[in-house]
Amino acid sequence: MTVHPKGSLGILAGRGVLPRRIADIVLNEGRTIFIVAFDGQTDLATVDGLPHAWLPLGATTKTLKTLHAADCTEVVMAGSIHRPALSSIKLDLRSTASIARAGTRAFGDDGLLSLIVEEIKNDGIQVVSIEDILGGYLVTAGTHTKIKPNAFAMQDAARGITVLKITACADIGQAVVVQEGLVLAIEAIEGTDSMITRAATLRRKAIIGPILIKGCKTGQNTCVDRATIGPGTISCAASSGFAGIFVETLKTLIIDRYATIAAADAAGLFIHAMSFDGSNREHQIKC
């Protein structure tokens, strides 16, 4: 029997199936949960039938009061958050003060969410990472599909890892698309699936299709964001003519692992996990 800390687990829920998956697993283990759903972000299906509250993204004080009222002693952040322009978010006084203290740190991909995490910790609630709950979902090294990457794909993976090391210095994206050494797309605010669709318009007639390379940014706060792929990723990659996907070993989550791998096999794609911190000189980029 799993032994849990006293109190409920608070789930700060973004888009996608991951927040609900966490809720269901934790409930099955006998622990209570409470979901903070963000207006314009969280899927309705995530909170269906579960205790929850809908709150604006910038309402830090109200979020903390809600978590305390629900007896949440731990909080996990799960699902993607499409951050709107700061000028369009109705920030409360605590959020405004936090952003002012953070300065330029607030403007990266994870900046605003990292500030929320800091405020939660300052309020005495422990913030846990997704892998603390779903550790078995982190992908292990090697090829997980019937098809394996060839030498051309491995070269494109090395090129993609180099690019990700550089973009990580500026807190930009977790993924890149490479084909025959050419960078077709770098993930920005649109998210991985939309980037894949964008890259498809630039796909070349070549021996091998484009490759998706996805992993955690250097120094990334994994309590805020964790590189993730799932059946939706496979569907986008397959319809866009991709050859396969490289992910970072033990730093990337595969949601619905068996369904994801089965979908990749059916589409003729590979999924290969490898370390992004190899000894290749090309990877040794300093920020």
UniProtKB/TrEMBL annotation:
UniProt xrefs under Pfam families: LpxI_C, LpxI_N
Superkingdom, natural source: Bacteria
UniProt domain LpxI N-terminal: residue ranges: 9-134
InterPro entries (UniProt xref): LpxI, LpxI_C, LpxI_C_sf, LpxI_N
Domain LpxI C-terminal per the UniProt entry, residue ranges: 141-271
PANTHER family: BLL4848 PROTEIN (PTHR39962), LPXI FAMILY PROTEIN (PTHR39962:SF1)
Name of this chain's protein: DUF1009 domain-containing protein
Lineage: Bacteria, Pseudomonadati, Pseudomonadota, Alphaproteobacteria, Rhodospirillales
